[in-house]
Protein: Dihydrofolate reductase
Amino acid sequence: MAGRIVIDLFMTLDGVAQGPGGIGEDPSGGFEFSGWQAGYPSSGVGPQVQQGMQRLDALLLGRRTYDIFAGYWPNHTDGPSGEIGRLFDRVPKYVASRDADIALDWQHSSRIGGDLAAEIAELRARHDEVHVIGSVDFAHSLIAGGLFDELNLWAYPILLGPGKKVFDDGAMPSVLRLIEPPVADDAGVMLLRYARTDQVPQVDTFED
Structure:
């Protein structure tokens, strides 16, 4: 049985997924709200994330997210976040980049970026569950090519307006299947889990 590619994204209610984790994380395009997720505490997200990582045996990351993770997680293998830190530290990390000369100093890291569709197929054959965390620019490429199996969205009751959205104009027209009922915590953060299907949107006209 082939492995799965799972995309995990934190987003605002209007779809912004840019720079959620810290001030200055991703100011590209003049984005002013880096750290918006960290600025809105949620009691439910942490346990949901940990539960969702139980089958993870590899990470697939964009270059910016990889650099952030490599600078943080190897130094946080103890304490409250130690379980995730140890997991990320020991599993293979695949970094999507066109630069063949990038320095990948975090252990078990390697580059992909030649033939994305073929490389994703190889990752499915090699691993049970590969998670793409953050990496919204790279996620756009996967969504545009239908190169994912599951999409987990943590939707925060925040509106930001400008910023990189989960779905840009390059998204492949498709119908997603809700895997389980939405789960919301006391802060109003909702987990939405969708599976990719081969269905495409159909058009019709409502009759009187």
About this structure: Residues 116-126 form the longest helix (11 residues). The helical segments are 45-52, 63-72, 82-90, 116-126, 136-145.
